[in-house]
Amino acid sequence: MDRNHPRAYFPTRIVAVTLLLVSLSACSGLGQKNSATAGAAPSIIEKLEITSRKPAFSGQVFGDIGPYEFVAGVATVRVDPKHSANQAVVDLDKAVDPDGFVRFKTDLVVLRPVVAEKSSRVLIVDIPNRGNKLLLARLADGSNQFETSSQAGNGWPMRQGHTFAWIGWQGDVPLGTGGQSVGMQPPVAKNGLMPITGTSVEEFIFDKEETKSLGVLTYPAASTDTTKAELTVRATISSPPRTLAPSAWRYVDTGRIEITRPDGFDAGAIYQLTYEARDPKVMGLGMVALRDVTAFLKGNGQDADASKPSNPIADIDPNLTVLVGISQSGRFLRDFIWYGFNEALDGKKIFDAAMPIIAGSRKSYVNVRFAQPGRYSRQHEDHFYYGDQFPFTYATTTDPISGKTDGIFSRCEKNATCPKLMHLDSSLEFWQARASLLVVDGQGRSVPVPENVRLYLMAGTQHGPATKPEYGICQQLSNPATQTPMVRAVMARLIDWTRNGKMPPASRFPSLEKGLAEPTQASIGFPNLNSIGLSFPGVFNSLYVVNHKAAPAEIDFGKPYKLLLPRTDSDGHDIDGVRLPEIEVPLATHTGWGLRKSGFAEGQLCGISGTYSAFAKDAAERAGKNDPRPSVAERYKTRGAYLEQYSQAGRRLLDDGFLLDEDLARLIDHARQDPRIAHLPQ
């Protein structure tokens, strides 16, 4: 699809409670020759300002565990740039204070049982996504805030007694207020006292019908002279770009531009601004923040004043630590492990277990100069941006396309710091996040999965379930198929595996031997649903070898990766993976892809939205719609017959470890009240 792509642009790309001098490398054995100051610790928490401490969920009591409390604060971290454990951070040596150290601030938010003795002693660190706390909504079907009792949802994670923490890592998300959002304040890199400038690239797709739109720049422009920058526009990623005259757009200020849509382009057009930026932030410190603040919470250090313990979970003393990242955060999680940051400064393992959710085969756009952590490649949006480069697999392999040898676990395997890991993807990750590269190489050959890794596909789901099916800019309704019951069960399995050694279910993920196919409708087996307006995509998120060290980046269209997609059944549902009851006993077709509608780059993949297409109620309605799929009444003669099949599917998943007892009961109750079966006889 992109072989004739003519051009692509890229960048080179707390009031203090007490002063803590928490050495995270006590007894580490690391030589002083690596330190900025002889005898100095490579990283310490200099200060922790607790900004909020209050009851969570209006004081609700969670069974025997009791109530929870919410703690928010800001940590000041001091880092030795000369220490070997920190030298992977790009530009760290360009943000040094006069004393030879680098300092930054990061938010810390904790949700913990009030009574430490009731705690499970499991610490779950949920990596924030663009400053948002996502995991609790998936584990509790509630909210990502903790004020009222209704926000606790079903309360499952609190009833287990787990402690949760959120640590700021994304340097373009500002420090939050009272724990509502979670950000970080990294230093700006400089050449001595002089600012650093360099080529940076911004992409904008406005998806709005207005003819004038504002684009916000990640980094300030070194000059607001439009003749010193270049703005191009193209209809799709495979279309040739048109360079716009400097008079066709303007800088509103150093951080924003205004674009007037040129004739001949719709709302889904792709604009790329190549400009001279200034003041890059040391974004890679986000990995240091996650490593060192977690080590502090685990107690890997000593307070300067032992009579004033300032670790907000010191009394819990966690003995099992789990790292979770959802979407962007899952990509960062994979980068964190790949760079070797799961090794604490004392050589111990930081996280015992990890769960990247809907990350695909990606990593992140964080630890480079002029990084843009929010970017991630999709078929139409941000297609060639940094972050989707080898390695893709957890095992160490040799890439037949680039010739490189590497793996996400390549560093941690050398020092026994790899976590037990469960990787969950939706169907969309195969279409938009190149998930097949987790199990096959770039020539379509099988690659190994390490024994301490499980891969699970949440079959028939989109990136994140739609709260309510809506069209937006897509041709089809978005996909509401649930994921949360499976996420809860897999979390329980992961903790049991790590703590007690109980083996979890084997991977359930499409593979070359079972479930993956060439990216054509005939090979995949997706039904012909053109008659109801559901056309099979002609595109997916392709991948090539890219030289991101060049400015702009160089795309080698002669080195494409072979990507495969999941096979489907006659209803359009993925055959392999974990099929929750609404997919196994369906009332609709659910897919991990959607298509953009007319006026918004028609026919291109519709971002992170999938598709939902309900079956006809009965044969007469099906005939009227010319729908080739059997209707609800043709599939299930009575409500009782539907509920029996649904319950059996749920019980199988319960036996296999992919559902909890309480979730099976909830799902069956929900199915019993589903209005889509109301027309069936009892």
UniProtKB/TrEMBL annotation:
Residues 232-668 form the Alpha/beta hydrolase domain. InterPro entries: Abhydrolase_dom (IPR045394). It holds the Pfam family Abhydrolase_10. This is Alpha/beta hydrolase domain-containing protein. The lineage of its organism: Bacteria, Pseudomonadati, Pseudomonadota, Betaproteobacteria, Rhodocyclales.
